[in-house]
Design a protein that fits this description.
Structural class of chain B: alpha+beta
Order of helices and strands of chain B: HEEEHEHEHEEH
Largest sheet of chain A: 6 strands, antiparallel
Strand order of the largest sheet of chain B: 1-2-3
Strand content of chain A: 25-35%
Strand order of the largest sheet of chain A: 2-1-4-5-6-7
Shape of chain A: globular
Largest interface: A-B, 62 and 73 residues
Number of helices of chain B: 5
Number of strands of chain A: 8
Bound molecules: adenosine-5'-triphosphate, magnesium ion
Order of helices and strands of chain A: EEEHEEEEHEHH
Number of helices of chain A: 4
Distance between the termini of chain B: 52 Å
Number of strands of chain B: 7
Structural class of chain A: alpha+beta
Largest sheet of chain B: 3 strands, antiparallel
Oligomer: heterotetramer
Helix content of chain A: 10-25%
Helix content of chain B: 40-55%
Distance between the termini of chain A: 22 Å
Radius of gyration of chain A: 17 Å
Radius of gyration of chain B: 18 Å
Chain lengths: ~170, ~160, ~160, ~170
């Protein structure tokens, strides 16, 4: 599986539909403080099934929906889509035969929420199942977010042990 | 189970021992069990940057601590390698020589993994094949722009 | 005592409100009491970077959090200004525009205070009138060398 | 009071006697990771009376004494001296009339420890008294060490309150 692009709409500061394509194996993301770089990372974790608002730097899950600026009104829905190239057939189970796999998550302010795989509604569980054995997931080491280095440095022996248990 | 923990621990330790000298340009580091019972022992990190004495991670300098943690995070990643690896500003406390070695590892990993890294560091920007710029020309609203390296050095300003 | 806490709090708040827009190039921030009893109320930090909406500090970006904290630390310093102020790598997570404004404040403070700052950042190095280089040519043993700016850019590597 | 220089000997990685002079009001300290920059800061806090080994990134106070390298043996004593220009007569009490004020702290591995003001032995209490009203001290905001910014960011409302109380 190879990540092709990430599509964000109404997610945090990415109110307008935005496609972040991954055209090479060494992609740098740059820009001033507060412009939205880490928000892209939050979006990827969110669509992969992150269920803790705190981990996404919010108080409630609805905090991921664009909540307005000095000139724009808040919007009612956040949507993030991840599209993978699966031409090597590595995706698990029923998805092995698809050439592309699209994973999408949507959340509305009224609390309505859905997950979709290749445009078909599914449960969060189906999303996390896709990632089993791929090394991916909202809490895997495939995403090393701002602050993770400090947490590792300050980890007590018991905490480090737990990380190893979880990786087993 | 004891056996599974031990095997993951040994596996992680081996990879950590491999990454450390590549990031530090020498020296060595390893994990150590704090107790005798595999079911509840803690784990500590011991590190010896080149030319220095062995010590626990919290006695190292700010940048040495960060780089040691990065070696451990790469080792964890390697246990369950995914198609991509995303790194958000891990190079912030590093001096230029350490950033160069960090970038060298990124280039090596890119043979088998898609690397996506967020950075403010000019050296790391030069390691990218493609740069994606994020801006907030309209306050509070993020937009993408594609950038070349000179533009990127400009836009971080 | 209630009165003394309130007066320190108000004093700090005023200075914090002053430093924030100078560091961010705009926007505003302030402290707020979480409770009604001055004897045990907590204090939170609210910040509004330019063009953005007001929020608590933990909802800001990595660099915005750091810069907000720096504004608060400068305000604390100002309550009891000392002959010198030493800053150890506070500019690490900042982009170039924010580093420039941070340096501007350092230059202003230098009128009445001796500023000593540790940094890996080239822009901050340029703000110094004198650069002291620390090296470990002999492993484990620190020595000083005086440097000029070009040498410094070299020695960080 | 104006800081003229810091003299370190046997303190952490500064095994050889080293004088850090402060020739201007805008002094930058630079160098690679781990070369000793923060150790200079630790030295200043230590000589001003810092009594917590943990705050100085050690387990015991003796950890500030140079403990050897791959080629050098450990030494038996750490010494740090701060010299202030007091030509404006701002130093408190009996010290107001001195043109220069030297504050020095020494610690030996056998636990022997002493403080000296202008070469005369004194108590730690006399050192901290000199700094009263000057805004200086091992825990004052005149030293913003690596990690302090993160602590402020993560401070809970109760913790922030305590900081304000202490500054009152
Ligand atoms: N729900 C939301 N609606 C609108 N804006 C939001 C929302 N959530 C977060 N933001 C904004 O996104 C910005 C943070 O973006 P982000 O953390 O991605 O910055 P960054 O580019 O990583 O910066 P740094 O380099 O400082 O780490 C904040 O200014 C915040 O106001
Ligand atoms: N008692 C001691 N004896 C000898 N060396 C010591 C002692 N205590 C600390 N050190 C060494 O000092 C080094 C740390 O120095 P310091 O923290 O000043 O680095 P730094 O220049 O601030 O680096 P960074 O840029 O990464 O923050 C460590 O490598 C450590 O081994
Ligand atoms: Mg960020
Ligand atoms: Mg340091």
């Amino acid at each position: 599986m190879r990540l092709l692009h990430v599509k964000l709409s109404g997610f945090k500061s990415f109110v307008d539909p935005t496609v972040v394509s991954v055209p090479s194996d060494l992609v740098g993301i740059v820009g001033p403080n507060g412009c939205g770089k880490s928000n892209v990372i939050d979006a990827i974790r969110w669509v992969m099934g992150e269920s803790s608002a705190k981990t996404l730097r919010g108080d409630h899950m609805a905090d991921v929906i664009f909540n307005g600026s000095t000139v724009r009104k808040p919007v009612g829905k956040a949507s993030v889509e991840l599209v993978f190239d699966n031409s090597n057939g590595e995706a698990p189970g029923a998805y092995a035969k698809y050439g592309e796999i699209s994973i999408r998550r949507e959340l509305s302010r009224d609390g309505q929420s859905q997950y979709l795989i290749n445009k078909i509604r599914c449960r969060r569980r189906d999303i996390t199942d896709i990632f089993l054995g791929t090394g991916l997931g909202p809490r895997s080491y495939s995403i090393i977010e701002q602050g993770m280095v400090s947490r590792v440095i300050e980890a007590r022996p018991e905490e480090l042990r737990v990380l190893i248990e979880e990786a087993a | 189970t004891r056996a599974r923990f031990k095997s993951t621990y040994d596996n992680l330790n081996t990879r950590f021992q491999g990454f450390f000298p590549r990031l530090f340009g020498g020296g060595s580091a390893y994990l150590e069990l704090t107790g005798s019972d595999l079911l509840d022992t803690g784990v500590t990190v011991l590190a010896r940057p080149p030319g220095k004495r062995n010590s626990t991670i919290h006695l190292l300098s700010g940048g040495e601590k960060a780089l040691t943690a990065v070696a451990l995070l790469f080792a964890f990643f390697d246990l369950n390698p995914a198609p991509f690896c995303i790194l958000d500003e891990v190079d912030a406390p590093l001096d230029d020589a350490n950033v160069e070695r960090y970038c060298k590892i990124l280039r090596t990993m890119a043979d088998r993994t898609q690397l996506i890294f967020i950075t403010h560091n000019k050296i790391t920007m030069e390691a990218a094949q493609v740069l994606i710029g994020v801006t907030m020309a309209e306050p509070g609203v993020s937009r993408l722009v594609s950038v070349d390296l000179n533009e990127a050095i400009e836009m971080a300003q």
